[in-house]
Amino acid sequence: MSDTTPSIPTNVTRVNRRKKLLMALAAVVAVAAAGFAGYWFFYGSYFVSTDNAYAAVEIAQVTPSVGGTISEMLVTDTQAVKKGDVLVKIDQTDAKLALAQAEADLGRAIRRVKGFVARDGSLKAQIEARDADVTRATAQLKSAEADFERADIDLKRREALSASGSVSGDEITHARNAFSTAKANLAAARAAIAQAKANLGTAVSAREANAVLITGTTVETNPEVALARARRDQAAVDLARTVIRSPVDGIVAKRQVEVGQRVQAGMPLLTVVPVHEMHVDANFKEVQLRKVRVGQPAQIHADIYGSSVTYHGIVEGFSGGSGSAFSAIPAQNATGNWIKVVQRLPVRIKLDPAELSRHPIKVGLSMDVVIDTRNLDKQRM
């Protein structure tokens, strides 16, 4: 008996197989898409990253506080220094002379104030002497007034008796002379007491003027001595400032002076880079910062070390403006031909000092930054 089962064409089999493969592929793509969507929704969307990041630090600019000629240069570029290490010395000749002069002025001021104190006692004695002169002149004035009254009475009495001839002309002349003498003595006594009082007033004024210089102070606290001491201390400080020391631990960079060069106060001499205090300035797009908060953790990789070294940092703060806002020629959007450009905002990332000591980096090196934004309870920007 012949086989009557119909045969399936080969092309139909291939079509069915292709459909099954496409369905399987679609299922794999759907599962992968669902897995990626789930990963992104539950995990990946909480991380933002950028490779537009660079190592930075607040460098220490070393400048002199006094002018002078460089006598010694004790460091070179790339040299590591500690805080307090001597970097530069300025010739001390002028500063030493200024200090010696200030010390001499201080000694002279102390002696002058001591003289004021001693003079106060002398002026007190003068006042007492002038007061005694006033007392003596007062007594002499009273005596002169009494003599004048007696001479006046004698003269009037003799003049009254002269008409009867009871008094001789010689007696009248003598009485008149005595009256004139008494009158002159009275005038002299009055002038003497006026002079004595004037001398007393002068002595009192002199003591008051001297007292202004010393009242309420000692020799040490007298303003004149304090001023001279302050100038001496300033001269001592200026002398100490001729030795310039490193303000921080770090690496010397940008040395700009040589021995023998004349420098002025405030002139840049060199820079010390505190590499142990390095941080990262990461320039994130503004659309990436919706969930970024101060205090969130970050992972950083430096191009110099690659992915083999991972730094752990913390978001420390946000810049006050975008990079374009602080550029030398900021963008002006007042024209009609304006195209919106997504801006980048610098985010400061604090690094772990222990990791920096194990793997040091330098200013300006490129970094890759990833911020974990899952903790949204941190401080907003």
User: Which strand order does the major sheet show?
Assistant: 1-10-13-12-11-14
Low-confidence stretches: none
Number of helices: 5
Give the tally of β-strands: 14
Summary, kept brief:
The chain is built from 5 helices and 14 strands. The strands form 3 sheets. A 6-stranded antiparallel barrel has the order 1-10-13-12-11-14. Strands 2-9-7-4 form a 4-stranded antiparallel beta sheet, with no helix packed on it. It has a 4-stranded antiparallel beta sheet with strand order 6-5-3-8, with no helix packed on it.
Task: Characterise the protein shown here.
With 381 residues, the protein is an alpha+beta fold. Among the domains are: 61-94 and 238-270, OB fold (Dihydrolipoamide Acetyltransferase, E2P) (Beta Barrel); 96-236, Orthogonal Bundle (Helix Hairpins), CATH 1.10.287. It has helices spanning 10-42, 93-161, 169-214, 223-240, 353-358, and strands at residues 47-56, 60-62, 68-73, 80-81, 86-90, 243-245, 250-253, 262-263, 270-273, 279-285, 297-302, 311-318, 344-351, 366-372. A 6-stranded antiparallel β-barrel has the order 1-10-13-12-11-14. Strand 11 and strand 12 form a beta hairpin. The longest helix is centred in the middle third of the chain and has 69 residues, at 93-161. The protein is rod-shaped and about 195 Å long. The protein starts with 9 loop residues before the first helix and ends in a 9-residue tail after the last strand. The model has no long low-confidence stretch (mean pLDDT 84).
